[in-house]
Design goal:
Length: 357
């Protein structure tokens, strides 16, 4: 991938600071099975603890506080049903949360806003794109998030809440939802940066010494980009829907949602750019292989063409007719060899003068 194009893609990359060590947390802490992380915050206060079940969830929050309930793991159907019953979540929404093959979307259910989208990351071991579905249920004072597995892009948001930096504690659940959406979109930029590095390595390999594995790797990256495009395009529609209507479309969050929509467009442009580069690289690879094959065939054709008259001469004097005068000539054998060598040298000179060699 050319460096100037790589810079254009990474220019919009808004890196979050590395997460600091979290303060001690109350509760049992994350363990096997589903995890429930509860965060209560306001401008003046912050509490965070791990819950073993929803029974430990407070019935009422303090006035002015916002609650973020992060549930990791979708294999406990009883927990999910209990969550839906406690917060009045529609059964169809619960079905969408459990079905991890959902397309990114946002729907308004009156009392709450339901949003589902794909969170992407790069696996350094398999060198492939990892995709996880994230569902958000946004209430006026409560945000519930559902994730498939531990490990996410939300840790920088948690650190900002813990440290009280920025305006995150001053705002409500709508701004928190925007911050999580923004972290997910930033993950797309990080992923594009990783894939851009892979494309750059492949491009250098393609121009220097392409191998059989080069083509296979290009096809793998093209499949990854197609998969990533399928995740990013619905994300654009979901963010646009949130920008037009719902709790994120009004107040101070509206301008941030417009900025987030612009970032999603940049992600899609970056995906299309890398796809075009990979398509061009594949064409170059096929052209290089074809040209190399043409060079090989040209050399073999020249060799075969040179041996055609030599084979003819050898065939004539191999017929063993009794009255062939050259068969009894003392210098016949060296003369025939000299004629054959002269013919080959003349043909080589002729081919070089024509530019065929």
């Amino acid at each position: 991938m050319p460096r100037n194009r790589k810079k254009r893609i990474s220019r919009h990359l808004r890196m979050n600071p590395p997460p600091m060590e979290a303060p001690p947390e109350e509760g049992p802490g994350p363990g096997p099975g589903p995890e429930i992380n509860l965060i209560h915050f306001s401008e003046q206060s912050f509490t965070e603890k791990w819950l073993s079940s929803l029974e430990d969830l407070p019935e009422h929050s303090d006035e002015g506080q916002t609650a973020w309930i992060d549930i990791t793991g979708l294999n406990d159907n009883a927990l999910l049903r209990e969550t839906a019953e406690r917060f009045g979540i529609h059964p169809l929404v619960l079905e969408d949360i459990c079905n991890t093959g959902q397309r990114a979307k946002s729907e308004d259910y009156g009392d709450y806003q339901y949003t589902v989208l794909k969170m992407v990351s790069w696996d350094e071991d398999s060198m492939q794109v990892e995709v996880e579905q994230v569902s958000m249920v946004l209430f006026p004072k409560v945000l519930i998030t559902f994730q498939e597995r531990p490990g996410d892009l939300f840790e920088p948001v948690r650190q900002r809440l813990r440290q009280g930096k920025g305006r995150l504690r001053k705002e409500g659940s709508d701004y928190l939802a925007y911050s999580l959406l923004d972290a997910i979109v930033d993950g797309y930029f990080l992923l594009l940066e990783k894939i851009g590095d892979q494309v750059e390595v492949l491009e250098e390999e393609l121009l220097s010494a392409p191998r059989t594995g080069t083509s296979a790797r290009m096809h793998e990256l093209r499949r990854e980009m197609i998969f990533l495009r399928k995740a990013a395009w619905p994300l654009r529609e979901a963010v646009a829907s949130l920008e037009r209507s719902g709790p994120l479309s009004g107040g101070t969050t509206a301008v941030y949602m417009r900025d987030l929509y612009d970032h999603v467009i940049q992600v899609i442009d970056g995906i299309e750019t890398i796809r075009d580069i990979l398509s061009g690289m594949l064409d170059i690879y096929l052209s290089t292989v074809s040209n190399r094959m043409n060079e090989i065939m040209k050399v073999l054709t020249v060799i075969a063409t040179i041996f055609i008259p030599l084979t003819f001469i050898a065939g004539v004097y191999g017929m063993n007719f009794a009255l062939m005068p050259e068969l009894q000539w003392k210098w016949g054998y060296p003369a025939v060899l000299a004629v054959m060598a002269g013919t080959a040298l003349w043909m080589l000179a002729f081919f070089r003068r024509k530019g065929w060699l």
